[in-house]
Amino acid sequence: MIERKSTSNWPVIGNEKVVEFLERSIISNKLANAYLFCGPGQLGKRLIAEIFAKSILCQDSKHKSAPCGQCAMCRQFEKKIHPDFLSLNVERGKKTISIESVRSFQHEFNTTSLLGDTKIGIIDDAADLSESGANALLKMLEEPAGKSIIILITQFPNILPNTIISRCQVIRFKLVGRSRIAEFLEQQGCSQEEALRITAAALGRPGRALDYFNHSILFDKHEEHANDFFKLRREGLCYRFSFIQKYLGTKSRIDQSNRIAELINLWITVIRDALLYKENNREQIINLNHSSELKKISDARTNSDLLKEIQSLIALRDSLDNNINPKLALENYLINL
Ligand SMILES: [Zn+2]
After folding, report:
1. Are the beta carbons of 121 and 150 closer than 8 angstroms?
2. Which tens digit of pLDDT belongs to each residue from 78-93?
3. Which is it for strands 85-88 and 118-124: parallel, antiparallel or unpaired?
4. Which of 182, 233, 253, 317 has a CA that sits 20 to 30 A from residue 104's CA?
5. Radius of gyration of the chain from Cα atoms?
6. Are 322 and 158 in contact (CB under 8 A)?
7. How many whole angstroms separate alpha carbon 143 and alpha carbon 239?
8. From edge to edge, which strands make up the β-sheet containing 118-124?
């Protein structure tokens, strides 16, 4: 498939249709009161939300759909001191976004702006909202204050109440093609060989690719997760349960879901690679450094076994978006591995 080059000035990789849509909304002044940016992690949802907000708040009318980066508003935005740009996340040490946090967010929205007429707030990750926090947010969405725009960001939209989703313009982010990410990495000074290796492991996520390029320790972690999977398959229940305990600790539900989703995405590629190994299709293999383990899995399992494994991993990943206890779901999967 030929990938379309972006004509936008926004410094993002991929998801051109999303960017075009948001740019057009700004130019035609057709802005919704609330947006829901959803899709897998590290696709640039937060980055795009911030550029969108900055473009709307920018004072330079010549730069209609992209921030000028020069005006007082843009400079305040860059210093993270723009009074009309608000951000709501889980507070340090807490597991959910409380009703009190939503109320103080709402209070800031209701305060008259001294600079312009639009206030913009980002909630990241919106699936972290507590039940009472979500109810308070729903009230805000039902009665928007003046010209306000709220952008909810999440990997797990189905955890949000339908009443909230139905009040948002839903923007779905997609995985980005390998060639687009590799091209970007090479522009950053990455060798062609390394760009291919990183892009294969980044699974369509430009943010992940950039992390791997800038911090080799993160790429090593990726390799470690592949090794964990091989070991989990060999070891008994005792090891599997202690792995879960160590890997998830006492993190919040959304953090646990994020971590499990990260593992599952990698594990799916391992099983897919084992299938490719069976078919002697080495060129498409992602986990190139694990050939001997891939061979073992591929020798021990039939094609239909491997396809079933992929299906159950996908089912586990989908279940994370369904308000279930993520730790129990992973335990259940590993018991039956
Ligand atoms: Zn500006």
Report:
1. yes
2. 999 999 999 999 888 7
3. parallel
4. 253
5. 22
6. yes
7. 52
8. 85-88, 118-124, 147-154, 34-38, 169-172
> Residues 272-281: contacts with CB within 8 Å, 24+ apart?
272/310, 274/298, 274/301, 274/306, 275/303, 275/306, 275/307, 278/303, 278/306
Is 168:36 a contact under the CB 8 Å cutoff? yes
**C-alpha 15 – ligand 1 centre gap (Å):** 23
* CB-based contact 321:156 (threshold 8 Å): yes
Question: How much distance in Å is there from the Cα of 148 to the middle of ligand 1?
Answer: 19
Rounded mean pLDDT of 104-125?
87
Query: Strand, helix or coil at 146?
Result: coil
The DSSP call for residue 79 is T
CA distances from 305 to 170, 225, 300 (A): 37, 22, 9
- 5 pLDDT band, cuts 50/70/90, is low
**Residue among 124, 134, 116 nearest 47 (CA):** 124
- Considering Cα of 59, then 62, then 66, then 72, what sign does the dihedral take? negative
State the amino acid at position 107 in one-letter form: H
Dihedral over alpha carbons 265, 266, 270, 271 (to 10 degrees): -20
Q: Which residue type does 327 have?
A: K
CA of 16 relative to ligand 1 center, distance in Å: 22
pLDDT band at 254 (very low <50, low <70, confident <90, very high): confident
CA angle 243, 248, 253 (to 5 degrees): 150
What is the 54 CA–ligand 1 centroid distance (Å)? Answer: 8
Cα angle vertex 18, ends 16, 22, to 5°?
Answer: 115
Tokens found for residue 117: 């007429």
Give residue for tokens 């730790």: 327
**pLDDT (tens digit, 9 = 90+) per residue, 148-200?**
999 999 988 988 999 999 999 999 999 999 899 999 999 999 999 899 889 98
Cα of 106 to ligand 1 centre, how many Å? 26
Distance 61 CA to ligand 1 centre (A): 8
Tokens of 212: 């791997």
Q: Which residue in this structure is represented by tokens 């740009």?
A: 85
User: What is the amino acid identity at position 102?
Assistant: V
